[in-house]
Every structure is written in structure tokens, then in C-alpha cells.
Amino acid sequence: MLAEVTALLACRPGGIYVDGTVGGGGHAAAILEASAPEGRLIGLDRDPEAIGRAGETLKPFGERFELHQENFDRIAEVLAERGIPAVDGIVLDLGVSLDQLESSGRGFSFRREEPLDMRMDPRSQQTAADLLARLSEEELARLFREFGEERHARRIAHAVVRARARRPLETTTDLVQLVYAAIPGAGRSRLHPATRVFMALRIAVNRELERLASFLDRLPGVLRPGGRVCILSFHSLEDRIVKHRLRDLSGRRETPGPLRLLTRRVLRPRPEEIAANPLARSARLRAAERI
Asked: Which of 68, 139, 233, 272 has a CA that sits 20 to 30 A from residue 18's CA?
């Protein structure tokens, strides 16, 4: 949704922008182009490999950008360290990147055998294997149910506890085989039976929902009047948090809040984009402006 994001951000020459999930640098490059010749961009990402990829993508923009291995919930600290009180625009793309799925070697995908790591920031201590080894059956069931919306959460949690009593679950293959054995009729649905379990573990390992809520609470303080935010989410839990928090921050007609909604209803990718990039099909875009 590159065109939609850049249009909603209304980038202007000389503006200062933050890409809080810089990834491969696609949104960042579009923002730098739209804010030429003097616009600046600060790119953040937890993943050091993403920082390296973005650096290569953005090289043509010279000194107009800087990159930092930070999570977007620390945006206020990053700006304060640079003497920047507030910015003209922020974009967050909350999806897992294709590079992380295909070549990170950290177990984000259930389609190849890799260690059960799932840390976006390798400096973090807790891995998916650690959670599977440490949490109680009740805690695992709650994690799969709340973060993965998995209806067989209790059955899978019970299977994990039984399996780890024999040997640790260490690879993605270990977990996929366990899920297949635990779910009745696994493989009959178009959705891979391990999809929700993997998503739940990734969210928990990286504290994704907690960090998103923290960012949204701090958002008004880092946007200039007229500054805008665009947030792309890819599953209902993220979108629900974004939707309700932006709505709360926009206030009511008689008591307006610090933000004004730019998207009264969620925006979805155009059919031609989905045809060209099937991974975009679940994207949901919401935007707001500081008033």
C-alpha cells in the first residue's frame, strides 16, 4: 500500500519523518523521494539484518537518512537524543518481512526446519523454544488462544507439555509435527494448521502487542501539529488495538482529542496489488493527524 501510505502522510520538502519498521527500506525510499530535496528520515528496526538491507536501499539518498537498531516504542528517546522535539510523519508496517520468513534462519516460518528462535532482535534473551519449555500448560493454552486465536489451544498446549517431558522442542519441524498430531483433521483446511501457533509465539517472544500499545500512548507527543501517522497491521489483534486507540485519541465532537482520524474506515489493498503481491491481502491501513 505504498501509494496510499505516501498520500496519507502528505510528505513535504524539508519534513522530518520516521519509518519505525524500516525493513528493506521501501516505504522509507518513497518518503525520501516525496520529501525531496531536503526531507529527512529516521529509520528504526529491531532486526540488524533489516538495518543492513535498508542501508543499501537508501544509499542514493546520501545523508538525508539515518538508521538505528531500535524498536518503534522507543521513538521518543531516539528523537530526544537527536534534539528533535517532534516529527512530520510516522509510518509503521507491522508485518513480518519476506526476508525474515525466507532467509533469517530464526524460525519465523513453519515451511523449513530452523531453530525455534523467533526473536526479531537477536539481543533479546527469550526465544520461542524457551517459552515452550518454561510456560505451564494453562499459560501455553492462554497464549495460543489470545495471541493466535487458536480454537484448539488447550489441546496443543497439552501436547506440548507431554512432548517436552520426553525431549525439548527445539526446531520448527518439532512444533509443526506436534500441531499436526494434536489437531483433529489437520491439513484439511487451506490455512496451515501451525499458522496460529507460530503467530502466537512470535507475538509473545517479541512483545509485539505490548510495544504497539506503548507506542500509541506516546504518539501525540512525538507528532507536530499537522503531523501524520500511518499504521499497517496484518491481523485482527493488532488492528483492534490501533483502531480503538486512535479512536480514543481523536476524542468526541464535544471534547476533541489530540488526533483527527484520516481513515474513518480501514483501508485495504487494491485488487491489482493483491494480484501482484499475495502477501498484501491481509494488510489493513489506518491513519490519523495531530491537531
From this structure: 272
In terms of CATH, what superfamily is 2-99+208-290?
Vaccinia Virus protein VP39 (3.40.50.150)
Report H helices in the chain.
2-9, 26-34, 48-57, 75-81, 98-103, 128-134, 137-148, 153-166, 172-182, 195-206, 208-222, 236-250, 271-276
Dihedral of alpha carbons 137, 140, 145, 151, sign: negative
Decide if 153 contacts 161 (C-beta within 8 A).
Answer: no
Q: Per-domain residue ranges for the chain?
A: 2-99+208-290, 104-206
Tell me if residue 227 falls in helix, strand or coil: strand
CA separation, residue 211 to residues 17, 93, 206, 241 (Å):
20, 14, 9, 11
Mean pLDDT, 10 residues at a time, over the chain (291 residues)?
95 96 95 96 95 96 96 97 97 85 82 93 94 97 96 96 96 95 77 92 96 97 98 94 96 89 95 90 96 95
Q: What is the model's pTM?
A: 0.92
H/E stretch holding 225 reads: strand 223-233
What would the pLDDT profile of 72-104 be if each residue is shown by its tens digit?
999 999 999 999 999 999 999 998 877 777 777
Which cell numbers hold the place of 278? 499475495
